[in-house]
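Input chain follows. Return structure tokens only.
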Amino acid sequence: MQSYRSAGLHVAAIMDGNGRWATRRGLPRCAGHKAGIRSVREIIEAAPDLGVGTLTLFAFSSDNWRRPKAEIDTLFGLLSRYLRTEVAQFVDNGVRLTAIGRRDRLPRGLAAGITQAERETAEGQRLHVRVALDYSARDAILRAVKAAPDPQTLTAESLLTLLDDSGTCTDVDLLIRTSGEQRLSDFLLWECAYAELYFTPCLWPDFGARQFALAIDAFRGRDRRFGGLAPVPAVGAANVQWPANAAVTAPQPPNPAHRSAPLMPAAGE
């Protein structure tokens, strides 16, 4: 089993605002998803040099099935093309790609493309990119508990392993959400127990390498204590091994000094 615990931070991103980006420009929502792909490329390229070892991207939630079929089909088509065009570059750059979430409801071609991409990039060691598709944290936790050989002996660490069948799941150090919304939206609820939260009004298609670097810099300025008195070094701090009987507490509230925008009502994610 490959381990990314020593390779740096685990950063997760809720890629919000593609539709609003397009609407503000008088474009169809699918144009925003296409623009968002460019941001994904830019951030994946920048991540290793910023000390990121694992990058988890929320691409499609289980609740997104409520969206218009045309938009869903466009998004899945973009993802399929992305896999076909980017895998060779991932292999060359040492990037491993895996997917989390359900696959039984995905289009057959997309599901097959994911499996093929995972196989071809399996040896990547420089960066692990995890894409969340048809993903719900609550559903993932329920499935993990049901998959445990003996729920009575389940620990925080063993559950974390069950949450990702690739065997490389770690706690999230930094969770980024774009577009000004400030909520988790059923994303990595267990893994984000001690994550630092970073919210920005920047819409995802405008969130590039520079904005990503600013988020990492803000994270490194946080004082992380994990319930104790002494600060813990920021790099990979959430990825230390938990005691088998460790209790999980609620995430720490974001530092007001790093809040980019006040709370606001949803405007169509």
